[in-house]
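User: two proteins, same treatment. go.

Assistant:
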Amino acid sequence: MGEKIFEERELILELFPGTSPELLPPGEVLYYRDAEGRVHIQENPLHLVLEPLEPLASTTPIICEACLRHISRSAAGFFRFGVGQDGRRFRYVALCRDTESCSGTARPGRLREILLRGILP
């Protein structure tokens, strides 16, 4: 049998389990939309779920916070996620409705930044 290969993140978390997520090297960031329309951003062990908001009628273009492209209001989706212990405060983000095409151009560092804003206080 071959030797098991460990990722850098796994080694750090094994040796230093209390390491802040901000200090870990970037891992694989998953960015997808589920059947209910919620957007998920995940980098093990962190996972952020963003709730969709009702679209507003407007013609103003928007910048997607994941891929940083200018998109039409009809191609944009607005999402929110709770912050803090009580979850009574929210942060709002504008993202492409088509997360599949957006994930191809979104930079992992930018997705990780959105994820950490939702996870860390």
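Protein 2:
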Amino acid sequence: MPPTTPLTGAELDQALSALPGWTVTDGLLSASFTADRAALPGLYTAVAAAEDAADHHAVVRILYTTIGFGLNTHDAGGAITAKDTTMAARISELAAAHHARPAG
């Protein structure tokens, strides 16, 4: 399991370069994806299973054809850690597998 040490600014910048569509917004590692409305429940179910397996959960917002995720690590005082970047990469993989594309 990735460490819960907060990422430095340089580490976070490096991680973001490998996470297209992800940004830091209000202290959360965040991204939104769009998909056909019928695909969103399957994507959410797949992400929820991945979150449970990693014991690391995102803030999730669903609005019509958009699903958004926000990650930080409570065990690190709400900082962004490698746990978050690892989960963000997994969410991006699952989004692609469910034909979702980065919003915006």
